[in-house]
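Sequence only, no structure available. Ideas?
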Amino acid sequence: MRYPTLTTGHVQGIVTDLMKGLTPSCDTMAVWRGSGEAVEFDVLDALLDTARNDLELMGTDPSLTNDKEPFEGGLAVAIFPFLHSLPVEVLDDPGFWRYLSVSRFWWFVQWREAKTLAAGELRRVLVYTDGRRNTEQVPLRLYLRVKSVAATGKVELAKELEKCTDFWRSHVIRVRTGTAPELATAFAVMQSGDGRLATGKLRPYAKRLNRMWTNVQLGLYDEQQATTMIQGLRE
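Reply:
I predicted one. Tokens follow.
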């Protein structure tokens, strides 16, 4: 499959222009890789148009002001099928994620990371386009958020948790838990219920969970084993 990519140099120039309110042509600078049929973005574009329109209709909804995570999770779930259908060589190319971040997700970056953009520091903004920063790069982190639980069929978990930025980025995507769907799902289920751990307790709990990888192949646990372990680790 042929797919578009952007170099770090091109992205830096594009983001510089975007931060100035300009509209650079990402496609003009894109380098196409692979062979065969080209990626068709019509489905993704339609999904993003719908999400953007929904966001505009919500306007100044207090729930969005207080917590942007449900909207981010909803967008992640919506676009996951399209992204997951792409060949692995496309998904493994940082240049492809760079291209997506500035060509199609910039409106979301502007809204989701408004405080960082307002500070005007290019270096800090560029992390949201860096195809090797899987916890920060916007479309990549959306994809990995859902992928961490998709194999169990419980993709809705990716949008059900509230105020969960630290949970997904630090305690799932950044660590090995994100590679073990049964474990990530059991963890997310715990955090979506009445037994949710507050941030002060979640971080030491996550550290205990991460240390278990040293001696236990947690990726081999089935649903029941993962649930039992997740609950037992609290005691």
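The first strand starts at residue 3 and ends at 5.
Hope that gets you unstuck.
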